[in-house]
């Protein structure tokens, strides 16, 4: 597959191909490869990252939606051929491949679906102890940011409720084909030892998402739709804006609302 064809093939997916071998190797080295026997690369394209994964003591699988890329991988990585999944990651049931076994996720993610990839990972966190990936830099920073930051938001809280998030390094546009208009950032997610919430999970997600929909308002105003008792609304936590609350405080807030609903 020529580079021109590569660009055409992926343009509709919002993907930019990494061309710098040293960065690809650095991404492959970002996982510990401990506690699981399988790794899944999302959107391998022509395999610049894949080749370094195949050198690891791990069983590598790739999932790729573009037929031309799949054909290229089948012809050039014969030892991978049986583990190429020609499916849409967001729609595919990964238990068909991994059953209940743990696996890591890695990849240079298309910008336009990177958040959706992250949300699916959170849904499958029971099986995903590690996750390393390249995002648009501002998205990667948002995921890893802490309370008090202007970019702290829904992605930050929901991810950090279950994973420790570390921003690893920045990748400039000139190492991609075609070059994006912005920097990229690589992050590592390591699942927390205790990744179950001490509150209703669906309610937690709803509280976080609703709170940040009006991030400039206090929680007393942004969470009006929850029909809270006057007694609960007098709690000082409702004087704060969502960006001021840590993950632990969002969990505590969810517990308060949960108990309020029961009373």
From TrEMBL:
A Pfam family matched in the record: RrnaAD
Gene3D superfamilies referenced in this protein's UniProt entry, alphabetically: Ribosomal RNA adenine dimethylase-like, domain 2, Vaccinia Virus protein VP39
Location of this chain's protein in the cell: Cytoplasm
InterPro entries: KsgA/Erm, rRNA_Ade_diMease-like_C, rRNA_Ade_methylase_Trfase_N, rRNA_adenine_dimethylase, SAM-dependent_MTases_sf
UniProt keyword Methyltransferase present: yes
Residue sites binding S-adenosyl-L-methionine per the record: 16, 18, 43, 64, 88, 108
Keywords, alphabetical: Cytoplasm, Methyltransferase, RNA-binding, rRNA processing, S-adenosyl-L-methionine, Transferase
Catalytic activity: adenosine(1518)/adenosine(1519) in 16S rRNA + 4 S-adenosyl-L-methionine = N(6)-dimethyladenosine(1518)/N(6)-dimethyladenosine(1519) in 16S rRNA + 4 S-adenosyl-L-homocysteine + 4 H(+)
Listed EC numbers: 2.1.1.182
GO MF terms, alphabetically ordered: 16S rRNA (adenine(1518)-N(6)/adenine(1519)-N(6))-dimethyltransferase activity; RNA binding
Record family assignment: Belongs to the class I-like SAM-binding methyltransferase superfamily. rRNA adenine N(6)-methyltransferase family. RsmA subfamily.
Biological role: Specifically dimethylates two adjacent adenosines (A1518 and A1519) in the loop of a conserved hairpin near the 3'-end of 16S rRNA in the 30S particle. May play a critical role in biogenesis of 30S subunits.
Protein name per UniProt: Ribosomal RNA small subunit methyltransferase A
Phylogenetic lineage: Bacteria, Pseudomonadati, Bacteroidota, Flavobacteriia, Flavobacteriales
Gene this chain is encoded by: rsmA
